[in-house]
Amino acid sequence: PGREADVLERMAREGVQADESTYAALVMLRRADPAAALRVVEEARGAGVAFGHKLFTACACAMWARSQVELAKWANREAAAAGVRLGAASLHRQAKSAALSGLFDHADELTRQARRLERSGRR
Q: Buried-most residue among 1, 17, 42, 47 (CB within 10 A)?
């Protein structure tokens, strides 16, 4: 609950359906509180929102931002399990979040993965 509930209620009143982009933005809004960010992810799942690269990337970035390494890796595993292929742009965003949290080894690894994807033509 909180700001995201207000946004979702207002959208519903206006007849606008929340989608993956909406929930990805709400996850990033809650990035300072990993538990709240994960609640938004669960709410999206409960609402039947189709998960794609936007939502998985937002979740991973929110976790990297708070040094929640295992949860960030979990988000990436969940994406793979769902058949969502995270591209180089996603990995670069995650690397930036990890670096801003001082997780430089993880940021370097994410950057290497992103560059491999770029060389293979998968952006």
A: 47
